[in-house]
Amino acid sequence: MSQVRKDILNGWKEIGRYVGRDTRTVERWEKLRGLPVRRVPGARRATVYALIAELDEWLEDGKPEGSDLAANRGAVDFSPAVTFSPSGAEHLPAIPSTQFQPPLEDAGATPATLELHSASPGMAQAWLTSGRRQLIARITMAVAVGLLCVLASPVVRSHANPTGQLSRYGSDSGERLSAVSYGSRISGVNDLYLRGIYAYEQRSPESLQRALDDFSNAIAKDPDYAPAYAALSITYNLLREYSVMPDAEAYPKARAAAEHAIALDPRLSDAHASLGFIDFFWSWDTVSAEREFRTALALEPSSILAHHWYGSMLTHEGRYEEAIEQLDFAQRLEPNSAAILSTRALALGLSGRRGEAVDMLQDLISETPGVSSPHAILSTLSRVEPQDSARFLFEMQRAAELRHSDEMLQVATAAEPALHSGGESAMWTSILAIEERLHPEASHRTFLMAEAETALGRYDAAFADLGQMVQQRDPAMMGIILDPTLSPLRRDRRFGQLIASMGLPPLPN
After folding, report:
1. CA distance 401 to 87
2. What was the pLDDT predicted at 63?
């Protein structure tokens, strides 16, 4: 998802402001003139949004029928000098022609060259029309600037007094100001923030470290800038997935940053989405996670991050159809995101559409070869029947290289010759031996060990390892429902007991 989108307008008010009309007019235009307005699936009727590119195209086609909106889109017009009738027509204030003096257009113009009494009637009328428009534009600009000052003043006060952050939002509108719209007033902070957003969207160990540095520097410059804390939280969540940062380091730091962002700005959608991710994958609090994701989407219905990460949570709960619905929406908002496409492919592949999912991931790898997530998910889907063990090891190895994970690379590299010489059983025996060599402590069993034991038919040993991991609250356990290798364990009542102890929903019959 995600950074704040600049190409989406949320709610009738933002749409109306963009096209220069009131909410009643744009609602009518949707019904009568096909104004391209979208609605969030499953949300209340009033939850609407519009893509600026679609609005621009609609305006260029002249759909407002004779209006000059295409030349003036994006202007916020609250001027009392311009009113709107129910039909949407403009009513200009009367300007006595004897008092009218058109503004000078350039330094070479003089009052003598623009005097109305010396012009032809047609030229005078043209000057009148031009002058009215310019006067209205000036009045509009003055009112708009005044409005922006009113909106900005609570932000200035909130930096001096963080407890006043809620004053950023209009009490009667219920609409959230985007993070960018109240950017930091401290020099250099906004540049650091936007550069960090760009960096974490690259999803590589190096880019995520750059993002971490950028957000940390932004916070050092402006300790009250809530969006930077939310972005820092997101970065820590990504570092544990796309690099080798341990879960035990990443998740607590991510939680601290998200909670601080919410303390500064309780209505920051990204912070709630990040907290939902942490609640689910780290705290195993599915109720709180669901609540945080729904809060994030209520605050910002077009939040790419919230739709994406909520879809990831639903996938890990085995709620594949619901997950696909969320991920479809996220992909429509951000069609070029390798991360979203990868998560959606996982949900599709596990829901019985493996061929389609594999094709998606292969295309994605061709277009974005430096991202690890398509390889990691292909490694998982390779274990869905019919299994492709060679592909499983190859994709594991490629994901390990991109994440810079020496341990994963050792496992994949050592298991490959075992597969070629002795088949799948030899491969899993080799994987189990390597994992036990890398983690010799009896108290440190790994998810990969349990997978290997299951593949080798050692179900009691697998349940023992999984039970120990539940007691230790190992985050890897949140993949227990979707893991294809553990499918044989589902017939055992102990499997249901395990997932219930983790707060996960029961498996469908």
Report:
1. 62
2. 60
